[in-house]
Amino acid sequence: MVSHLELRTLFCAADAVCFDVDSTVIREEGIDELAKFCGVEDAVSEMTRRAMGGAVPFQVALAERLALIRPSREQVQRLLAEHPPHLTPGVRELISRLQERGVQVFLISGGFRSIVEHVASKLNIPAANVFANRLKFYFNGEYAGFDETQPTAESGGKGKVIKFLKEKFHFKNIVMVGDGATDMEACPPADVFIGFGGNVIRQQVKDNAKWYITDFVELLGALEE
């Protein structure tokens, strides 16, 4: 059993830190915000809750929700313009501090690349460090599905991305930070998982994470020790 002190030491020695986005880096669940914008909020948020609790295979839940929302390219663009996602307090400072230390920061999300890249730009994270699902549109901008070949479109996808990062960049110590079951199951191959409950508490994660925080100040504090 790894002690809390050992986990803190591993976090401070990380050469890469991967963050989930929805309800972790940002306060909202992007797919729920898109559903609200498109007028199908209630049905979709119930599906999200079941998916995050691990009750439904991720790709099935994603396909079901998108079939209800059917967002057009214009709706996605309007959502970002009119209701941009809100960064979780402390995350900008934490990511900035990690970057100052030479740590590579990645965003790994079961959400949508168009939204996640918008968030990444606010945090000085290059688009190449973003792994998320791609929405597909017809030439007239109408919804045409999503790219099912992306690793983030399936259960276990975040772990596949971390395995890929380890192989490509030879990272020795990768930390995964997130609020949900899909984040926790990415460790291993991640070396450390830190559960985050600052926006929403998923009981399964809170009960099973060896390190669980509700404020990014705790991680900033660990770096300053």
From TrEMBL:
Assigned GO CC terms: cytoplasm
Cited Pfam families: Hydrolase (PF00702)
Catalytic reaction(s) noted: O-phospho-L-serine + H2O = L-serine + phosphate; O-phospho-D-serine + H2O = D-serine + phosphate
Known EC number: 3.1.3.3
Biological processes per GO annotation: in utero embryonic development; L-serine biosynthetic process
Record field: transmembrane: none
Signal peptide: none
Keywords: Amino-acid biosynthesis, Hydrolase, Magnesium, Metal-binding, Serine biosynthesis
Residue ranges that the Swiss-Prot or TrEMBL entry lists as coiled coil: none
Cofactors that this protein relies on: Mg(2+)
Active site positions, chain numbering: 20, 22
GO molecular function, one term: magnesium ion binding
Pathway: Amino-acid biosynthesis; L-serine biosynthesis; L-serine from 3-phospho-D-glycerate: step 3/3
Family: Belongs to the HAD-like hydrolase superfamily. SerB family.
UniProt xrefs under PANTHER family: PHOSPHOSERINE PHOSPHATASE (PTHR43344)
Functional note: Catalyzes the last irreversible step in the biosynthesis of L-serine from carbohydrates, the dephosphorylation of O-phospho-L-serine to L-serine. L-serine can then be used in protein synthesis, to produce other amino acids, in nucleotide metabolism or in glutathione synthesis, or can be racemized to D-serine, a neuromodulator. May also act on O-phospho-D-serine.
Protein name per the record: Phosphoserine phosphatase
Originating species: Octodon degus (Degu)
Lineage: Eukaryota, Metazoa, Chordata, Craniata, Vertebrata
Gene name as annotated: Psph
